[in-house]
Amino acid sequence: MAVNFPSFTAADLQPVPGVELGYAEAGIRKQNRKDLLVMRLAPTATVAGVFTANRFCAAPVQVCKTHLARTSVTHPVRALVVNTGNANAGTGAAGLADAEATCVALAELLACDPSQILPFSTGVILEPLPITRIKAGLPQAVANLAENHWYDAAASIMTTDTLPKAASDTLQINGTTITLTGISKGAGMIKPNMATMLGFLAMDAQVSQAVLDHLIKQVADASFNCITVDGDTSTNDSFMLIASGVAKLRIDSIDSPEYVALSKAVIALAQKLAQMIVRDGEGATKFITVKVEEGKNSEECRKIAYSIAHSPLVKTAFFASDPNLGRILAAIGYAGVDDLDVSKLNLYLDDVWVAKDGGRHPDYQESDGQRVMKQSEITISVKLARGHAAATVWTCDLSTEYVKINADYRS
């Protein structure tokens, strides 16, 4: 069960003018479930994306990058298409052809060029994409395109997720109301750069391509690149930022106060979507925040935070509520910060001071550690006493249910 997952309904998700969503039951892997999504964009839209660092990236990722590189004011992205149940990864030339064929089929329905379509897939790797089923499902998805289908869109991209993930926000900038809504999916193979995740966040502001390209990197680094469930990096990870361009507000500079206000709102919404992925991590029973402070630079803080968050020994201890907190110190030690002076390090578990100056705090009691570890939400704080930099990572515990889910995933 997801850990303290925020509740929302379809009515809580605000339509974004200039973005329509349609879904279908194409039977890609399982019958009687939404598994195909089309997002049609206004011709004024700008789109930016960041993708997996996995060298074995899936065919749709490769095609998506190529199509994005061809976009311009006169040749904008007109639609995104997402299928679940099959990753179209490890499928070679045939997989690339299937991803392109998906774009061709949708382009015919929307009367645009195939290179104006961005394809996405998620699901099982090393299996051929059932392109015939996808083509057959696209007319249904196009037929029910509407601006208020965000909840159904979130449901249609799920794989091992137990709940749809979506959020909305509005803000006022220079008297103009800007609407932001996003969806994400992911529950396992979650690691920075990015995770086994898809994320789509749309707003109705006018944002130049150069500004949007800058913004998406800033947003990803503060949200989806700060989560980990199991340390695996998927072949299909993609995060897309869409500015439909329908609202009156236009942002052309990252140095403007308008950009500052917008970026703050987009980051906050992306963090909600990213944290939903961790809260719904496969078999998760605890949501864990890892904060590393007083570092020389953010890079070393992130190294240490991820080392703790990736450790199976740390994560299984938290699942068992076992205050075997020496495992955290060990993870800090092998994080790769070679000049770290551990004699100055302090470790906290919520309000409990566990280690002082590199050793067990004289007042620390195991019962205090166990009290915190029984909570469903826990914060690990590491203070390095070597500077002013900091980094935060969100993760979850590693349970017996995680093993069961992944052992049975293809059955």
Biggest beta sheet attributes: 6 strands, mixed
The end-to-end span amounts to: 20 Å
Low-confidence stretches: 188-195
Strand content: 25-35%
- Give average pLDDT, whole number: 93
| Number of helical stretches of at least 4 residues | 11
Order of helices and strands: EEEHEHEHHEEEEHEEHEHHHEEEHEEH
Helix content: 25-40%
Strands of the largest sheet, in order across it?
15-14-13-16-12-17
What does the overall shape look like? globular
Q: Which class of secondary structure composition applies to the elements?
A: alpha+beta
Write down the Rg. 22 Å
How many beta-strand segments? 17
Question: What report would you give on this structure?
Answer:
This protein is α+β, with helices and mostly antiparallel strands and 411 residues long. The protein has helices at residues 59-69, 92-110, 131-143, 150-156, 209-222, 257-279, 298-310, 312-319, 326-333, 366-373, 400-407; strands spanning 19-24, 36-41, 46-51, 79-86, 117-124, 165-173, 176-185, 198-203, 206-207, 238-243, 250-251, 287-295, 346-349, 352-356, 359-360, 377-383, 389-396. Helix 2 (92-110) packs parallel to helix 3 (131-143). The protein is built from eleven helices and 17 strands.
Quick structural summary:
This protein has eleven helices and 17 strands. With 411 residues, it is an alpha+beta fold. The longest helix is centred in the middle third of the chain and has 23 residues.
Element layout with pairings:
Elements: E1 19-24, E2 36-41, E3 46-51, H1 59-69, E4 79-86, H2 92-110, E5 117-124, H3 131-143, H4 150-156, E6 165-173, E7 176-185, E8 198-203, E9 206-207, H5 209-222, E10 238-243, E11 250-251, H6 257-279, E12 287-295, H7 298-310, H8 312-319, H9 326-333, E13 346-349, E14 352-356, E15 359-360, H10 366-373, E16 377-383, E17 389-396, H11 400-407
Parallel strand pairs: 4-5, 8-10, 9-11, 12-16
Antiparallel strand pairs: 1-2, 2-4, 3-10, 6-7, 7-8, 12-17, 13-14, 13-16, 14-15
Helix pairs in contact: 1-2, 2-3, 5-6, 7-9
